[in-house]
Amino acid sequence: MTHRFLKRTVFPNFLELEREEAVKDMERCVQSLDREIEHLNAFCYDWSAWDDMYKYVETPYREFEEANFTLETFKNYNLSLVMIIKPNGDLVWGKGYDPSTQENEFIEMEEITEHHALRSNPKLTKFTALDESFSGIYRTKKGPMLIAARPIITSNYEGPIKGSLIFGRLLTDGLKAAIAEQTRVDVNIWPVESPEISRPELEIVKRIGPDGRHHVYEALPDLLRVYSIYQDVNQNPILLLRANIPRDISKRGAAAMQFALVSVVGIGILLLLVILLTIRIVITGPLFRLTRQITAIGKSGNLEHFQEEPRKDEIGILSAAFANMVKQLTEARRNLLEQTYYSGMADMAAGILHNIRNTLSPMLVDIELLLQAVRQAPLEKIQAARQELALEATPPERRRDLKRYLELAEGKIQAL
Q1: Dihedral sign, CA of 2, 4, 9, 14?
Q2: Alpha-carbon distance 188 to 227, whole Å?
């Protein structure tokens, strides 16, 4: 899910940045081609604003040609065409050179282009201002040529204008390689009519049209191709530029997304471990200790060793409530033990009394019988007999009977 979110939200930004950078690379290639034209134009300006050139146009002389218009000049300055034209269109001097042939000789201008077309082009020959210039790319028989034209004036940049100087430089493979090296872009440059251009790329040329200059095409998963059309001096398509851009940004974006995904997963796991550790320390640990104490109390029945958790959260409240319950249970147990003790003592005393009563019951019966016998004894008669026996006047026989009666009564009482 995280990967899908990153792919939909973050990765398109990398793709857009990659396309923008690819277009910038193509723009650098186009700008490099523009700079080559500007350099040729500046070089043409150095020669056109020169007193010797100014005099030569007025009166051509061989020494000037031999000193300046040499084959070494063409080679050293990468020139393929030099033309000097008067304001009326007359050609003062003109030669061409094809650097691709590696031959040490000039070629006629007709082998490069129809010089009459150049001479009749007012943009190249009809200058009205001293600082006026004209430059661009011109279609020739040898292929596209960078061209620059300047009015011929004095070294002090004064007129009147004596004619125009035209420099041309063929767009050779060496120049294309120089552009690629300057921009550090793998760029291909073809004339729009080149057979090297494939049919799909020709369709791209049509698709770009006159209004757009760049077209980005995802040729391969690891390669972007940016196409651009360069126009000639007549504003017609003349060059097709193709920049082959490695998709390093999207690769780095994918790697960054992968790293972000791994980081998110790693951080998630780390946070999960921290949360689990926190839960263990803050929640499950105290609950485990509380459960262990409760279980130990349940097994042993010992309520005196419960340790309350010194906390102020819900677990602390639960621990305090359980400690209070243990305290109440301890007090209830103590009261119950006391009540049981006293109840046992009462039962014991009742048992002892019951045993004593069982032991004394026969004695009580005997005593009761004795008391009944005592109550039934003729005590008054015995007392009267004793009194009568104490009298001296009592006859002997009577005395004998009284003694016998007293002996029998006392014996009976003793028997009781």
Answers
A1: positive
A2: 10
Q: Which of 61, 75, 135 is nearest to 53 (CA)?
A: 61
Question: What pTM was computed for the model?
Answer: 0.64
Q: How far apart are CA 123 and CA 233, in angstroms?
A: 9
Asked if 371 and 414 count as a contact pair (C-beta separation under 8 A), the reply is no
Cα gap 35→135, rounded to integer Å: 11
| Calpha distance 10→26 (Å, rounded) | 25
- Rounded Cα–Cα distance for residues 34 and 26 (Å): 12
Q: How is residue 5 written in tokens?
A: 């979110």
User: Residue 252, by phi and psi: left (phi above 0), alpha (psi -120 to 50) or beta?
Assistant: alpha
User: What does residue 331 show for φ and ψ, rounded to 5 degrees?
Assistant: -65, -40
Question: In angstroms, rounded to a whole number, what is the distance separating the alpha carbons of residues 8 and 14?
Answer: 11
Question: The tokens 């790697």 sit on which residue?
Answer: 255
What is the helix (H) or strand (E) element at residue 137, kind and residue range? strand 134-140
Say if strands 223-231 and 91-96 run parallel, antiparallel, or are unpaired. unpaired
Evaluate the omega torsion of the peptide bond into residue 160 and state whether it is cis, within 30 degrees of 0: yes
Dmax over CA atoms of the chain, in Å, equals: 226
Enter the tokens of residue 305.
């060793």
Question: What is the token pair recorded at 75?
Answer: 């080679």
Identify the pLDDT of residue 120.
80
pLDDT at 374: 61
**Under 8 Å between Cβ of 358 and 389:** no
Cα distance between residue 78 and residue 170, in whole Å: 8
Q: Which helix (H) or strand (E) is 135 found in, with range? A: strand 134-140
- CA atoms of 109 and 80, how far apart (whole Å): 10
216-231 tens-digit pLDDT: 877 788 889 899 989 9
Token look-up 């396309």 returns 19
CB half-sphere exposure, 378, CA atoms < 13 A? 13
User: What is the C-alpha separation between 54 and 151, in angstroms, rounded?
Assistant: 10
**Which residue, chain included where needed, has tokens 């002389």?**
61
* Locus of tokens 């004339």: 191
List of the chain residues with pLDDT < 70: 1-11, 115, 209-213, 301-307, 309, 311, 364, 366, 369-371, 373-379, 412-416
